[in-house]
Design a protein that fits this description.
By secondary structure, the chain is of the alpha/beta class. It is built from twelve helices and ten strands. Helix 2 (42-55) links the parallel strand 2 and strand 3 (62-66). The structure holds coenzyme A and magnesium ion.
Length: 288
């Protein structure tokens, strides 16, 4: 799976932002057709994204397109207008059912077969950001085309009538439900946007908390958010060293016939080994 520590959106009709995004060294570039685009600019966004996919070099950044929600009336033309130009993935917002993911998956498969592209090569990432979406995570997460679930905080808050606060305690249940569903189905979990994009300190705190919850990445909306977020979702030297130490000592202790042992005054057993292995996996995915 592509590393997705930071997933940067820009409105699909903002050509300058699309070209700017190529210079940022960001893991994922997601050209938006949905809520970042005014109703009067939807057609323009489709055309600009199609052009970007054909003409621009995205380098190592993943090229994604966010279509409008399934059922919005825009979705069919959204997906058809860009699919021939082979995006690496499609982001579907406000997903509430398996059937909605499957709708996209069937269109993608037809295109893959028609163009001679590998079946399942175009991945799907879904936004789960409504009360129904959270209730139906179990069926949504099971779709084989999925790589990731993206938690949409503002849409979710609106969906349940919550008042947003800086610490986001009002979102904790849903934010954790997404991580649990992702872990159960081996998907990436991509955390909420920090809309106060000028506040870098708050962004670092929110990113680190998301990482501690188990998220593997975060949505962003501004170039200044790339570095803080990619750093927060890359295990640091100390964490990597500790994880390596646990993996090495665990093997020795198993050979000695001990399931649990002490390391620097702390008990280590199987769950700590598994957590250490996850750290190493994430470090590798981030190119460390
Ligand atoms: N992607 C790429 N480049 C971006 C960008 C983005 N999301 N947001 C801003 N930039 C660029 C600007 O074009 C500008 O480039 P320049 O220096 O070459 O002229 C530079 O970064 C600085 O931008 P700034 O002036 O600080 O931002 P702004 O005030 O013009 O715009 C926002 C602020 C929030 C409106 C804008 O960042 C934005 O539209 N973000 C995306 C919103 C979105 O997609 N929402 C839907 C998904 S949640
Ligand atoms: Mg949204």
């Amino acid at each position: 799976m592509h590393a997705r520590r930071a997933l940067l959106y820009m409105p699909g009709n903002q050509w300058k932002m699309i070209t700017k995004s190529l210079t940022l060294g960001v893991d994922c570039i997601c050209m938006d057709m949905e809520d970042g685009v005014a109703l009067s600019k939807k057609t323009e966004a489709r055309a600009a994204i199609a052009k970007a996919l054909q003409e621009l070099d995205f380098g190592k950044s993943e090229k994604l397109v966010r279509i409008n929600a399934v059922g919005s009336g825009w979705e069919q033309q959204d997906i058809e207008s860009i699919l021939p130009y082979q995006p690496q993935g499609i982001v579907i917002p406000k997903v509430e059912s398996f059937a909605q993911v499957n709708w996209a998956s069937q269109i993608l498969e037809a295109a893959e077969l028609a163009h001679g592209w590998r079946v399942n090569s175009i991945r799907v990432l879904v936004g789960v950001e409504t009360a129904r979406g959270i209730l139906n995570l179990n069926e949504i997460a099971a779709h084989p085309r999925l790589d990731a679930i993206i938690f949409g905080a503002e849409d979710f808050a609106a969906s349940i009538g919550a008042t947003r606060t800086v610490g986001a305690l009002e979102l904790l249940y849903a934010r954790q439900a997404v991580v649990v569903a992702c872990a159960a189905y081996n998907l990436q979990a991509i955390d909420m946007v920090a809309i106060d994009y000028k506040n870098t300190e708050a962004l670092r705190i929110e990113s680190e908390f998301g990482a501690r919850l188990g998220y593997s990445g975060k949505q962003i909306i501004h170039p200044a958010q790339v570095e803080p977020v990619q750093t927060a979702f890359t295990p640091d030297e100390e964490t990597i060293a500790r994880a390596k130490q646990i993996i090495e000592t665990f093997e020795v202790s198993q050979k000695e016939g001990k399931g649990a042992y002490a390391l620097d005054g702390k008990m280590i057993d199987m769950p700590l080994l598994k957590n250490a292995q996850k750290v190493i996996e994430r470090a590798r995915a981030a190119g460390r």
